[in-house]
Amino acid sequence: MADHAARWVVSAGGIGVIASILGILIFILAEVAPLLFSARVEAGRKVAVPGVGKIEAVLSDDYRSHVATLDERGVVRVVRMQDGKVVYTSEAMAPALLAATVPPQTHAFAASTSDGRVLLKSMGFGISFNGQDRVVTPDETPPVFLDLDPQKRPLGAFAAQLDADGNALAAAALADGRLAVARRSIEKNEITDKVTEALGRAELDAPGRITALVIDPAQKNLYAGTAGGDLLWWTLQDGQPGDLHSANAGAPITALNLLLGGRSLAVGQENGALSVWFPVNETGDTVRLARTHEFPRHPGAIRRIAPSQRDRSFLAASAGKLGLYFSTADRTLWTGAAPVRDVAALFYTPKADGAYAASGGEVAEIDIHNPHPEITARSLFGKIWYEGYARPAWVWQSSGGSDDFEPKLSLTPLLVGTLKGTFYSLLLAIPLGVFGAMYISQFMHPAYKRYVKPMVEIMASLPSVVLGFLAGLWLAPRIERVVPALVLMAIGLPLCILLAGFLWSRLPRGFRGRFPAGTEALLFVFVLAAGAALCLRLSAGFERFAFAGDFKTWLFQVTGLGFDQRNAVVVGLAMGFAVIPIIFSIAEDAFSNVPPNLVAGSLALGADRWQTVTRVVLPSASPGIFSGVMIGFGRAVGETMIVLMATGNTPIMDWNPFNGFRTLSANIAVEIPEAPHGGTLYRILFLAGLLLFVMTFLVNTVAEIVRQRLRERYTQL
Q1: Crossing angle for the helix pair 568-592 and 412-442, nearest 10 degrees?
Q2: Can you give the pLDDT at residue 91?
Q3: Most buried residue, 188, 209, 260, 411, by CB count within 10 Å?
Q4: pLDDT for 664
Q5: Residue 197: exposed, middle, or buried by beta-carbon count in 10 A (0-12, 13-18, 19+)?
Q6: What is the distance between the alpha carbons of residues 45 and 391, in angstroms, rounded to a whole number?
Q7: What is the DSSP letter of 64?
Q8: Alpha helices (H) along 560-653
Q9: DSSP letters of 316-383?
């Protein structure tokens, strides 16, 4: 009965372990799965706005309950989408409008008039509550007019921008082909509350017929597209155009808009081409506009581009076709038929959960579900060209200091950091663990082995947080001061050991016979201590001789590599210290389990002790040694606290031993407290955990296959 009960308990425990691991895997997969889902775009209700002949521009409130339209007569109407009722109508603001738009990252209308002016109308929505009912009150701020053409001629392509302080800037192509820029600046005296208004205007020749214009939200840059396919970029200083930069996009440009942040320029062309450009710094102070992202062509000319106010997504409309795109990842999220026949106005809602398209007097609602647009296999593991970078790169940077920051979520630097930390720790742990186990099991006197082996195994009980604390706060500053001595030790200590061994072998046999076999290791303890002390003593002189007096300066000037105090050398020493006991214990058991008759037979046939160990014992113990190394590898891959505390946690893509790095496990520990539940970062961290899971599973599977083959091969001995 006891045997049956024990068998059932053990079986239940094993099944429970397997079920727990599978449950963890299923949970991780469930959290990661939404990253794979594509965007969902669906047409919603359509509303005909009463009294409107043609809608020129449209925008909505944050909750998509009300939509404001601007028609060709300059009348603003606010429509409640629930029932299509007009709840607000303004007076006509201008005799006739030629075109209208919503400036990027604003909640305002901008329009050009038939008498050479540009009007800007802020269009906010006040929210109040009447009991449980939300009441939306449209903003009735008066419009701002800027005179672009003193001769009152109709304007061509135009752009305008309005900030929260009332500063306004507008630019337009005049009837004679010249470009005019007008600015209104507001200054308020904080003591007297007196408001001063200043107006300015500039006019310049345009290199080509301008077909599209856009101004960035900071009113520092003006972009233009021409009928010849040229992209023009002027820097603005107090509304005055400065240096001109140009680039050729090929076909005539029909639509321009700036994405979130005001640096990336979405460009639509007459041949249906759609691309994203932004300034790139070249050598020196040279800056150029570079085409960094391209998307599949539309069948017709791109007429409208509407950017998201949450990320680098944008909508692009051509004749009868609408597309949703994400700039940074070169990702086409969705394409399909436009909800209206000819899109005259297009607006991406503030919460990026919908859009509105208008044609004639009709407004169509579009529902958008697009929670993780930036995630593709390329954005996770490939090079991506981010704003401000001179070329594509692998970058991990999950947060920034502004709302328009673009998360950079490449896992490649974290994978490299994980392998880097593992490599440098195993570089120390494998030789010491395996050769230490070999010496203790095959050469050391059994009386000393009973004490040494438990002492080494006790090292494994030290908490990793203690090792990380000591490595980061105590070891790292000392390593920084004695790096030349470490270089000297790498050369000097092996020479000291070889010299000591040679001298020991030259001593009289009678003198050496007084010491029990295997106790000569105590001699090398003193040799290593004396050699290390000598290297430390010679460190300053060696640094002057080999490194011109300053190792860190020499390293940077000669190799171009930097030196961080918390680096891979420190982690290798600390994590190697944590991994050594695991490899040592398993390897020592493997050596000790080799049948004694194999050793005795080898010695009886005339082989010496070293030949017996290397040619008989080592091959027989290799399956166990390999298992120990793989378990040590898994321990190093999953280590968190040591790499968290002993490195700078900088996701750098290089193998420089004097630089820091960031591992997958440390990244999860650092980022998960700040990751919003269900957000992209949150799910990416679960993906990092899944990668660790898969990595260790594959390594253990391969290790088991190799171990079985080694066992089959050497079982014949």
Answers
A1: 40
A2: 86
A3: 260
A4: 92
A5: exposed
A6: 44
A7: S
A8: 568-592, 596-604, 609-612, 618-638, 641-646
A9: EEETTEEEEEETTTTEEEEEEE-SSSS--EEEE-TTSSEEEEEETTEEEEEEEE-S-TT--HHHHHS-
100 closest CA partner among 340, 362, 346, 270: 346
pTM: 0.88
Token duo for residue 105: 């990252």
- Residue of 464, 426, 454 whose CA lies nearest to 643: 464
CATH of domain 42-397: 2.130.10.10
Domain edges within the chain: 42-397, 411-714
pLDDT tens, residue by residue, 431-487: 999 999 999 898 887 878 888 888 888 888 888 889 999 998 899 998 888 889 988
The strand order across the sheet containing 354-359 reads 40-48, 362-369, 354-359, 345-348
pLDDT, tens digit, 9 for 90 and up, residues 261-292: 899 999 999 999 999 999 998 776 788 899 99
pLDDT of residue 634: 87
CB 171 within 8 A of CB 180: yes
The phi and psi torsions of 554 (rounded to 5 degrees) equal: -60, -45
Using DSSP's 3-state secondary structure scheme, residue 219 falls into coil
Residue 393 DSSP one-character state:
B
Distance CA 426, CA 434 (A): 11
Could you tell me the two tokens for 672? 């998960």
In three-state secondary structure terms, 266 is strand
Mean pLDDT of 618-633: 89
Q: How far apart are CA 491 and CA 498, in angstroms?
A: 11
* Antiparallel, parallel or unpaired: β 195-204 and 396-397: unpaired
Assigned fold of 411-714: MetI-like fold (1.10.3720)
**Rg (Cα) of the chain, in Å, rounded?**
36
